[in-house]
């Protein structure tokens, strides 16, 4: 941190600039990316800090602890418990947390609605009484972008034909005027293209009567769009079972829901028009409808229209990579892992970073592991990616899980490769199950933060996370989830926050679109279950590890960037001094993320032993 930054921070935390600090408190409430700055300022306030003895661990400030522990809507503040300035700051901080919580809850509700709509296997558009688009799901957005009969003009939903647009607006106006106890629906075939007979079936239903607090407040009508793509079919097995339809009748229903007319259906399935009419009449009788639009509405607005698995996937909770594998542990938790390289190569277990997952394969456009004869086994830790979350998890627990997986894979001994926090997990395995480990490589990792100088050498965001997890674990979990939700709305803000305290080569990396794409993909997978596992791991790093570095006897190679501000070089040097058989290679002018540049050299080092 340069002298100008230090002067600015002293000014912001001075009594004369109390208003500025209060402003920062409320700015953080509305914009989560500013929470790191705010909490760092609170930690730096001279009147909230105790004098720390050099050479001892960085203790929590008693006064700051009192201040932050009291931040809760349920707790009342005793008068005169704090100085006047601290009491005012505490009140504002309390209000800011309440604001942040409300924003977080609203975003969660909106996220839940979007997720629900994206799971619906038909296009869904919410409109108001003026046909203005309020919300769409992914399929509807795709339809609008591709111009499949429906478009967005300014804010309004329109078709390519003025007659159809007028009819659409008429239906929306009629349905919007229905009372809370009235319900109806209208069907409207929409032409796709000027020179084709292909149609999209649109079903309109009112939403005023639903009384659903999750729906957009001004929404009047929901527009359902049947899938018009030829590669998409509806899985109507449950629909057919519910209405006792024959397979031929279910096939007719599928085509009607896609907007096809009976003559077109007859041509498509090579039967006569009369045969289709006969089957359709039977379907009408069984389903108690009287028209094709009513039948389509019954399919599209009911629970029957589930897309076939071969056409489109909407399960965002499952692992996205088809190469993911799962192993059931003795306590019935599932461990997700993925293999790269040669199946018969030298087995290497990779332990990912705290911001990553099993997908971390830094040159994933080229299978370097296969070229080097390595079988790279990358495992999601509990709560990351596809592995089940486990409360009160620790480093030693990981050794037990790895042992179970190695037994399952029939591997007596493996090499370990750990990056960042993953290096601590690897080190624990080397210390506690040395008979299963032949060699270890650790990248951008080292000993625990212990001395004042350790903290001073770290980047502000990283230092704040460490201190907050150490001193106020429950607040750290809440803060992590608020920050995580806020930043993931805008990935550019995420990269801006993470890059704020970086230097040299790391800054260049964060400006690279290729790096952002990979890093963002790994990070998204790591947080697919939320931020609890991340918060747990930060707290675990700041607690006693459960093993000693002196217990590591296996040959260990460390790679560390000279300019690393997340894990300062001094921590890697101290690791090398404490472990019996460890060597350190310092990469000049490189930072914490140098693995993205040095991955080939690191894998070559692993393969050479």
How would you summarize the topology of this molecule?
Blueprint (H helix, E strand, L loop, with lengths): L2 H10 L5 H13 L4 H10 L17 H8 L14 H36 L3 E5 L5 E4 L1 H9 L3 E4 L2 E4 L2 H15 L9 E6 L7 E8 L14 E5 L8 E2 L1 H7 L3 H11 L4 H8 L3 H15 L4 H10 L4 E2 L17 E4 L5 E8 L4 E6 L16 H4 L2 E6 L15 H15 L4 E6 L1 H12 L4 E7 L8 H5 L3 H12 L1 H17 L1 H9 L4 H7 L2 H14 L5 H10 L14 E6 L7 H10 L3 E6 L7 H14 L1
Summarize the structure.
Helix content is 46%, strand content 15%. With 609 residues, it is α/β, with parallel strands linked by helices.
Average pLDDT score: 78
Uncertain runs: 1-16, 47-82, 229-233, 305-320
SS class: alpha/beta
Range of strand content: 5-15%
Helix content: 40-55%
**Over all CA atoms, what is the radius of gyration?**
30 Å
Largest sheet report: 8 strands, mixed
Compute the number of helices.
24
Please tally the β strands and state the result.
Answer: 17
Could you give the order of strands across the largest sheet? 10-11-13-12-14-15-16-17
Q: Give the terminus-to-terminus CA distance.
A: 40 Å
Spatial shape:
globular
Describe the structure.
This protein is of the alpha/beta class and 609 residues long. It is built from 24 helices and 17 strands. The strands form four sheets. Strands 10-11-13-12-14-15-16-17 form an eight-stranded mixed sheet, with helices on both faces. The chain has a five-stranded antiparallel sheet with strand order 2-1-7-6-5, sandwiched between helices. The chain has a two-stranded antiparallel ribbon with strand order 3-4. Strand 3 (150-153) and strand 4 form a beta hairpin. The longest helix has 36 residues, at 84-119.
């Amino acid at each position: 941190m340069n002298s100008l930054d230090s002067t600015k921070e002293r000014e912001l935390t001075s009594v004369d600039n109390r208003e500025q600090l209060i402003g920062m408190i409320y700015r953080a409430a509305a914009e989560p990316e500013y929470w790191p700055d705010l909490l760092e300022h609170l930690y730096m306030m001279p009147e909230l800090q105790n004098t720390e003895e050099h050479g001892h661990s960085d203790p929590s400030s008693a006064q700051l602890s009192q201040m932050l522990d009291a931040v809760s809507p349920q707790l009342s503040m005793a008068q005169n418990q704090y100085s006047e300035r601290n009491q005012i700051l505490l009140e504002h901080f309390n209000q800011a947390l309440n604001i942040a919580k409300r924003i977080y809850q609203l975003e969660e509700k909106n996220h839940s609605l979007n997720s629900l709509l994206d799971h619906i296997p038909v296009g869904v558009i919410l409109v108001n009484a003026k046909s203005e688009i309020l919300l769409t799901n992914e399929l509807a957005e795709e339809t609008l972008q591709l111009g499949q009969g429906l478009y967005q003009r300014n804010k309004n939903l329109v078709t390519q034909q003025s007659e159809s647009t007028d009819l659409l607006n008429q239906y929306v106006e009629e349905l919007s005027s229905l009372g809370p106890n009235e319900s109806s629906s209208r069907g409207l075939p929409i032409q796709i293209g000027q020179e084709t007979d292909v149609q999209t079936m649109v079903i309109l239903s009112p939403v005023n009567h639903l009384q659903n607090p999750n729906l957009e407040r001004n929404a009047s009508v929901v527009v359902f769009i049947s899938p018009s793509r030829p590669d998409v079919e509806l899985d109507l097995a449950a629909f057919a079972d519910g209405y006792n339809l024959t397979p031929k009748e279910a096939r007719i229903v599928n085509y009607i829901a896609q907007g096809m007319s009976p003559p077109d259906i007859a041509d498509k399935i090579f039967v006569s028009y009369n045969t289709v009419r006969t089957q359709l009449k039977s379907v009408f009788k069984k389903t108690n409808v009287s028209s094709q639009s009513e039948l389509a509405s019954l399919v599209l607005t009911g629970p029957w229209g589930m897309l076939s698995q071969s056409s489109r996937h909407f399960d965002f909770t499952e692992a996205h990579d088809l190469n993911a594998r799962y192993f059931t542990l003795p306590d019935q938790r599932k461990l997700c892992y993925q293999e790269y390289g040669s199946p018969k190569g030298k087995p290497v277990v990779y332990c990912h970073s705290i911001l990553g997952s099993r997908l971390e394969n830094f040159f994933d456009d080229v299978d370097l592991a296969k070229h080097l004869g390595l079988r790279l086994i990358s495992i999601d830790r509990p709560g990351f990616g596809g592995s089940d979350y486990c409360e009160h998890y620790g480093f030693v627990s990981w050794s037990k899980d790895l042992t179970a997986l190695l037994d399952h894979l029939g591997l007596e001994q493996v090499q370990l490769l750990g990056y960042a926090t993953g290096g601590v997990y690897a080190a624990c395995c080397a210390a506690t199950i040395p008979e299963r480990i032949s060699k270890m490589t650790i990248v951008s990792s080292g000993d625990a933060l212990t001395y004042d100088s350790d903290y001073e050498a770290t980047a502000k965001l990283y230092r704040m996370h460490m201190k907050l997890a150490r001193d106020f674990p429950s607040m750290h979990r809440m803060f992590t989830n608020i920050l995580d939700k806020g930043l993931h709305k805008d990935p550019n803000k995420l990269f801006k926050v993470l890059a704020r305290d970086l230097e040299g080569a790391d800054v260049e990396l964060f400006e690279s679109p290729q790096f952002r794409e990979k890093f963002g993909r790994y990070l998204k997978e790591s947080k697919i279950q939320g931020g609890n596992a991340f918060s747990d791991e930060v707290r675990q790093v700041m607690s006693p590890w459960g093993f000693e570095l002196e217990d590591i006897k296996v040959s260990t190679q460390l790679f560390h960037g000279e300019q690393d501000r997340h894990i300062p070089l001094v921590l890697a040097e101290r690791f090398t001094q404490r472990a019996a058989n460890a060597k350190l290679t310092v990469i000049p002018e490189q930072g914490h993320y140098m693995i993205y540049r040095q991955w080939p050299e690191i894998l070559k080092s692993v393969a050479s032993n």
